[in-house]
Amino acid sequence: MNTTFAMVLIAASACASALSAQTVLTLGHGSAPGNPRAVAADEFAKLVSERSNGELTINVIGAEQLGGDVSMLTSLRTGALNFTANSQGAASGLVPEMAALGLPYVFRDSAHAFEVLDGPVGDDLEASFKNLGIEVLGWWDNGIRHTTNSRTDIKTPADLVGLKIRTPSDPMIVDIFEAFGASTQQIPFGELYIALQQGVVDGQENPAANIASNKLYEVNTHIALTGHDWQASPFLMSAMTAARLSPEQLEVIHSAAADATVLQRKLMVEQDAKFLEEFRANPDLTVTEVDLDAFKAATASVTEKWKSGPLGEFVTKLLDAAGQEG
Fold this sequence. Notes:
Layout: H1 3-21, E1 23-29, H2 36-51, E2 56-61, H3 69-78, E3 83-85, H4 88-91, H5 110-117, H6 120-130, E4 134-144, E5 146-149, E6 164-167, H7 171-180, E7 183-186, H8 192-197, E8 203-206, H9 208-213, E9 222-225, E10 230-238, H10 239-244, H11 247-281, E11 286-289, H12 292-298, H13 300-307, H14 312-321
Parallel strand pairs: 1-2, 1-3, 6-7, 6-8, 9-11
Antiparallel strand pairs: 3-10, 4-10, 5-8, 5-9
């Protein structure tokens, strides 16, 4: 064998070895480009690649290209998907206590919510996910939620009576809007813009960042700052994926997830404030401040229902942690 040919074989062998050592993992989410969830997912992938020296590659697929949040959670549990930045409503189908985080008016703002989630309440939720073969890598922010519609200004709960409002498949949000007197319909988020455009529903509810990044204001020009609940966006990893990785690789995953979590939370707060200011400045939109006392009174029955329900013990623990009367 001549020297040149031998060197080619050695180089080819080294290349093949490097390729076989590379691990490609997939992260799915449902957000549009520019949304804090999408930006943080991309940052996570970038950090993992850098910190593993290219040994780990995260393929990020957003905008529900892998299916809705429920489908992605199913794929996560079977190991077909490695990571997902998911939603509170979908996650509550696996861990029912997740829905309780959306109790009406329990959190002042996102910072208040994370004070609670980063403590014993979050520990309990993480343990429940772990029992299902899922690891919580971080609690991301899905913001304080407001209400939009195409028909009328909303200032009191009475203004919602008879409106058809799209909600996620989240039992807490359904209870909240039924308490307001609206009818609810569950439509996948990826189909929401068209549903609003075609009048399938009159309105929807989401944080300002989601309303902006998905351009929902184009088809819902009435924006009411109802602030009716706060929601988390759990960042999750399949336990099957974790079992495949070395301790060093897992350390990279966790450190990158921690930094991406800090970024996501920061961006969500910044974007919510930015977009609310832009909505107010837009002459084609009407932004209304609501009678918060009336909205809180209208949803008091929702809190009582959940306190006396099957998740009552967790609800009381959550309310106590949030400084509310348990």
